[in-house]
Each structure stands twice: as C-alpha cells, then as structure tokens.
Amino acid sequence: MSVIQKIRDKYAVVIIVLICLAIVSFLLQDVFFGRNSMFGNQSNTVGKVNGVELSNVEYQNRIENAQRAAQQNMGGLTLGDEEVQRIREQAWDGFLQEQIMKGQFEELGIEVTRAELIDAVRGKTPHPVMMRYFVNPETGQFDPALIDRVRENARQDQTGQMSAQLEMLDREILDYQERNKYITLINQAVNYPKWMADLQVADNAKNANISYVHVPYVTIADSTVKVTDAELNKYIQDHKAAFQVPESRKVEYITFDVIPSAADTAAALTELVKLKEELDTTADAASFTKLNSELGFNDVFLSRNAIQVPEKDSIVDLPVGAIYGPYRDGNAVVFAKMLARKTQADTLKFSHIFIPMQSANGDSIAKKTADSLEAVIRGGGDFAALATVFSQDPYSNKSGGEYTLAGLAQLPNEFAPVKEAAYDGSVGQIKVIKLPNLGYSIMKVNAQINPAPAVKVAYLAKRVDPSSTTSSEALAAANDFASKNRDRKAFDKAIQEKGLNKRLANNIRPMDFVLPGLGNAREIVNWAYDADVNDISPVFSLEDKFVIAVMTGAREEGTASLEDVRPQVESEVRKIKKAGQIIEKMKNPATLEAAAAATNQPVLTAEGVSFASPFVAALGPEPRIAGAAFNKTWGTAKSSDPIQGVSGVYVIKVSSYVDVQQPAYDYATQRQAAERDTRQMVDQLLFPLILKKKSDIKDNRAQFFRTN
C-alpha cells in the first residue's frame, strides 16, 4: 500500500494531466476528423462559380421545383430516371448561368432603373411581356387600364398572393431588360466589312476545271506501315485541342435478371380472382379498384380512340356492369369492368387559374382571391393575362391558362374536378371550383369539339412480381459467380464458358445516375469512381436484376491517353506516313503525266471546283484541293506540288477558270444577312463556349452524392 500511496502522491498531477489530454484528444479527433468535423467531407456546398457557392438545400429546391413543373406538364405522370437526371443538370446549369451573367452585368455596369421598369410597364412601347398579358379582349390591343385593375385587386388581396405575382412579373421584366442590354452590347460589336463582302463575291465569281492524279492511301497496305507509341503520343501532343476529354469511367458488366416464374404468375392470378369476386358484387367499383388495383382508378370518360390497353375492342364493347378478363398487360394480370357510358366531347378546350391555400387557415383567403379574379374576368378582364400573372399551376401559367385535352392528354390528378366541370359545362361558362385541401380554380369553358361515345372503365390489376424464392435464386447465382471470379481474367473466362451476355457502360460521368440498360444505377457509378482498373465489383442489387461489374477504364479530365484514342490516332499517323511514301515516290513531278507515270495512276478530270465549297465532285470533301485550284502560284500554267488530301495524295493542274453567274451584288443586304446570322450564332454559343469556359467553376456534386 505504501508503494501505491507514493505513486499517488508523486504522480497524481501527471496522471490528471494525461487524462485531461486524452479527453481533449478524443474530443478534437471528432472535431477535426469525425463525421461532423470541420475538416471532414461534410460541406453543404455542392459547387460554386466565380466564388459564389450553391448549397445542397438550394440545389435540391431547384431540382424539386423543376421536377414538380415537369410532372404537371406531363399530366401528373411519374418522371423517368433519364428525365430526372436531365433536370439535375438543368438545375446546375441554371445556377451557373444566373451567377455568370450577374457577374457580367456588374462588371459592365449594366442595371435597370426604376424609371426604365415603369416605362417598360406603362410607356409608349411597353415590354412584350405586358403586351402579351394585358390585352383588351374587345380591341385586341394592349390596355394599361387592365394593369390598374389588377393592381387595385392586388392591394385589396389580404393574402399578398397577387402582389407577389406582380413582383415576379416585375422581376421577369427586369431580368429581360438586363439581358437585352448585355446582348445589345455584344451585338454592336458584330461587323461585316465591305472588303470581306467584296472578297467573298470574288471567291464565288469563278469555278475551276481541273485535271488531277489521285493516289489513294488504300493503295498501301496498313500492315506495311509501322507506327510506334512515341509517334502516336507526339501526334496527340501536337493536336491537343482535338483530344480534350472530360473525366469518365468505363465498366463491363453482366446481369442476373429477376424474372417472375410461372409459379409467381399463378400466385398473382389466384389473388386477383379472389378480388374479382368482390368486384362482381360491390356497388362502388371505383372505390374498390382505387384501393385494390395496382393501376388505381382513373375517374374519366374516354373515347374508343383514347383507350390504349390490350384487348381494347373487347373491353369497350362490354355492357355496363360486365367484366372482361383476366388478360395480361405488361407485368400485370387484369380484369376490366365497364362502369358507365355517355356522349362526351372528343376534344375539350378550357382555361383555369389555380389559387392555392397557403396554410391550414387559408381557405377563406384563397376563396376571396378566386372570387375577386372571377369578378375581374366577368367584367371584361383578359383571362390569359390574369392566368399568366396569378395562376400557381406552372403549365397553365405559361400557356395563358388554357388546356386542350384530346386523346390521351391528361391533367394532374388534383385538377380532375376542373376537367369534369369543363366537360359537363357549357361553352363560355365561368365557374369557381373548390379543390379539396388544395385551393380554388377559376375555370372557363372555351370549346367542346366532336361529341362522341365515351366510356368509364375500372381496371382491377395485380402486378406479377418475382417471389422471394425467385429473387433469392437469382441472387444466389450472382453471388456464386462473383465469389468464384475475383479477377478480370477469370471474370471474362467464366462469361465465355457460361455463355453469358457481357455489356458495356462507357463514358460514365461523375454525376451520372442512369446507365444504359440498367436504369438508376448510382451505386455502380460511385463504385466505379472508387475502384481501380480491373477491379471486380460486389453484387449490386438494382430494381429487377443483380449486377456484377469489372472496371475496364479510368479517364481523367484533360488530354486523352493513347489507349483511349489509339485507333483514331493510329489511322491519322499511318495516313501521314503513307502520304510521305507516296510523295517520295512521285519525286516532285514537273507535270501531271510524270506524277501518273511514277505512281501508275491515271489522269482524271473534275469540273466546277469552287473555292467557296470544300466538296469536289467525284472526290468528296477535299478542302485542300478546292483551295489549291485557286492558288495563283500555279494558275493554269503549272501543275501543283503533291497535296496531302483526305483520301489520298493529289497532284492537280487547272485547265481553265469559268465565270459563274451571280445575283446582283447588294452590299447592304449581304451585310444585313451576314450580321444577322453571326448574332444568332453568338446568342447560341456565347454562354456555353465562352462565358462558361472563362469562369472558375467547381463542381463538387459527385462527391456530395457519393454516399447518397
């Protein structure tokens, strides 16, 4: 005990310090290296441009808003994986464009004053947006009085929704004016000088008739022309601009598909038949199928032409109350029950303005807003203008509120009451419709075209899914293959022996979510960017298949490696070496006849060679031949030097120049057309090819989504 006491007395302070240091070290480890560390990969920034960051929250909001709008435009249909991926890229590009253009405006001092905005709204030459939205329906002309009426209604709107919509309209005009000023500045730099027009006219004034000797590259066998890696790499370095590539990965993969068995189909059909017994007797087939059918229930009347299901003719001819089936529709087995028949317009046109409730207590406020807009419309207000400003339905907002329903065209499900009221109403009718738990719609019937028989059908469907046994068998086969083939040589050998189908996914980009033939396969993309070449993946479980992949190529951003472009570069370098052999064989011929004799090729002719066109009749695209035909050094007196063309080596001699009849030369008209075309090209290419490339862009989205 005395020894222990001595240790306590002598080293107590040291022990306490060590304990404190251990605790601090533990805490700092979490701070610096933990999941929430200041240096861990926990940044909420998915990217930035010119120092301006895009947070994940804002990025996701942009994606969700775009998806919501796209879904409504598609009538409420679910977006496919490819569409979602396209929207992700559009959301990112939208952020880049906003920030890059904002920087351009600030750098150039471009701004729109309040006076300019007022002039754009109410001036002698109102902005096109105002001209489109506020048109008197009687005169068809822009009517400032409509603006006053709408703004007066906005002041009385307690919800603030109208005011918010008007502010958005002002913002749209402001953005337009800023961009218009910027583009105007750029366009003022476009110039087509008279000397250039005169030169172009002179270039087109004559055609050349030529004689030539052509020695095709194919006269020399590829096997006789050896190329080295050093020569190929030198060609790449000499032509770097042509070999710039983005970062990408390449994988090869096999799939073990999970396909429903005959037993799975029989099991699904047994369940469906039990449900069908209740469908036979229920008084509310619509509610029953809504609750029990894989297809839900579409509460609409459709014409024969609009119905697109298997066994359509048998179903459409059913008497009311009768049931047809079972039949196969894709991966489901189905019974169809005829619910009702009526005469309905084949094509319906109506307009509506959607006013949503902003909160649980916002029903009365939304109703007041809807009633106010209805009063404006009945008083002569322009429906399209009001819909564009106030409607919260993105589709109708952009189309002036109008829908045209024909064939398979659908509305978002939440607007079904609006559609039904439009079908059942009379042309010209204006009505406020309550949308439960959503808000209100001000609807106007515009046209009901081609009344025809229509039917309402309930589809009781049961999807045929692979059973757990079927899925387990496919997974077991995939696991067995993966465990026995853990290197690329064994992987390829086993595929060949088993007769499996190996597929390729090339040019996989860091932000890809969808791979051809696989659909949403983000997990495979993540693996590919963490793996080394020749690595074999674990078994990936996708929606209806199990996948095993091998990493076959990793390409970094910059100049392409030789292995990535070897066939293309070998062809070009071999062509150059063949040209050298052919030219050496010709030994600088003084005449066409000497070139023909040296190469054992005939002397041929071509007429109508134009300096303005790289295409030569009988030769195809040969720009060097077109240029050489108008080389003043040779003219019509001498044969040309050997020319390395696209398909072979040429020696040419101009036989004669022929004047070409041209329309009367009007410099003013030609200048106007040339400058117009140039401005259009600038408008299309300025941002993606110039401004975007000049900007400092950091795209961290792939890292952020690596674990999502």
TrEMBL record:
Top-level taxonomic group: Bacteria
A cellular component annotation (GO) from this entry: plasma membrane
Family per similarity comment: Belongs to the PpiD chaperone family.
PpiC domain residues: 345-447
Major localization listed first in the record, in broad terms: membrane
Transmembrane segments: 12-33
Subcellular location as annotated: Cell inner membrane
InterPro entries: PPIase_dom_sf, PPIase_PpiC, PpiD_chaperone, Trigger_fact/SurA_dom_sf
Gene Ontology MF annotations: peptidyl-prolyl cis-trans isomerase activity
Protein name: Periplasmic chaperone PpiD
PROSITE patterns: PPIC_PPIASE_2
Membrane topology: Single-pass type II membrane protein
Keywords: Cell inner membrane, Cell membrane, Chaperone, Isomerase, Membrane, Rotamase, Transmembrane, Transmembrane helix
SUPFAM superfamilies assigned: FKBP-like, Triger factor/SurA peptide-binding domain-like
